[in-house]
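To whoever picks this up:

The nightly regression suite flagged histidine kinase as changed. Nothing in the input moved, so I suspect the structure step. Input below, exactly as stored in the fixture:
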Amino acid sequence: MLNTLSGRFLILTTVFVMLAEVLIFVPSIARYRVDYLHDRLERAQIASMALLADDMLDSDLEKELLRNAQVFNVVLRRNEMRQLMLSSPIPEPIANTYDLRDAGAAILIRDAIRRLFTPENQIVRVIGAPTQDAGLLIEVTIATAPLRTAMIDYGLRILVLSAVISIVTALLLFVAVRIVLVRPIKGVVGYMKRYAAAPEDARGIIRPSAGVMELREAEEALLQLQTELTQFLKQRERMAQLGGAVAKVSHDLRNILTSAQLITDRIEASEDPSVRRLAPKLVNSISRAVSLCESTLAFGRAEEPPPALRMVSLVSITGDVIDSERLALSGPEVTLENRVPEGLELRADPEQLFRVIMNLVRNARQALEASHRPGRVTVTAREDNDSWWIEVADTGPGLPAKARENLFTPFRGGARAGGSGLGLAISAELVRGHGGTLELAETGPEGTVFIIRLPRSMTALEVVTG
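Regenerated output under the current build:
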């Protein structure tokens, strides 16, 4: 608690508020002392006025007047003459004289502090100006013990009030700091942790939203850093994979081109009628070499941007995929079915999601066509409270064991002869960019099922309703 930003701010606020209260306390206690002494002077003046009204007051009444005024004697100066109005025995000599008529603030504060720190009772003379112009001055002698006791009581009330004000102020500032500063900072830290755990997940990329200028600048700097780092990591990963596959690609490409060269030599050197049968092999060999080179180069230089997420109709995307693949069917043995419910909408980048579903449907179609048996490719979807689920299933022969072991590894996860293995790797990367997963649910002689899961949660990008 004490080593947190809000905790330290709470302590500093309490200290500073208490310091301010101390600065207020000192002049307040001095003001209280002056008011106390003026009150005694006013009481003494009233008592002396009673004596002036009746010169024949008995001694008991004089003692009562002095006791009510809490003084030992009263001297009133009128018309340049000092007159002892009321008097009683003084228990000890006068220790100090205080003239309140022209005392400055510094002197009053000094006298108040001295009185607080002088515990013994003393007899002091206090001089002031009478009220209502009742004379030139009034002078009384009083004991300091009641004054000090009253000052201490007043000071304790001030300190308690100051403590309450300090605590309430500190707590309010503590809450304000947590809302205005600590919570946004923790939000930035959360984005950093999520991004560090999964740099390919676009939800970990921060979206600046802070109202405080300094925090907004930090969020924008983090956004730029995350964007540049994401592109760098993708490029680095692809280049590393590309570098590891160069030797294999070179070997395979050399073998393919060698076969093509031998067939070409046969065509040039022989007029055998079998040349017509060899010509398609030459074309296929060269096509596979070109396709492999193009896929390799495309993967090495591709830089997938973060997905532009918005609410889209899934049935329209899968409909476009099915219509496109139907044009590529080589015969009536394979059927393509779109069973996505009408009205189902999900949050995704429509172009990237089209590419993912296209790769899965195309792989399924090509696998069925290569098996030379009737089959069906079906696209379905459902949703629950947490995710959207898209399923691409076929009734094909299933994936070979080698393909299952390296299914999403570039250049190693190809499921058909002549494939580069990039389609599933790119699809999995695109789905991870949405914060989701692409998994092989099952495969075997009865068919293969791939499942795409896209999360409903949205923490980084604004939802744009399409």
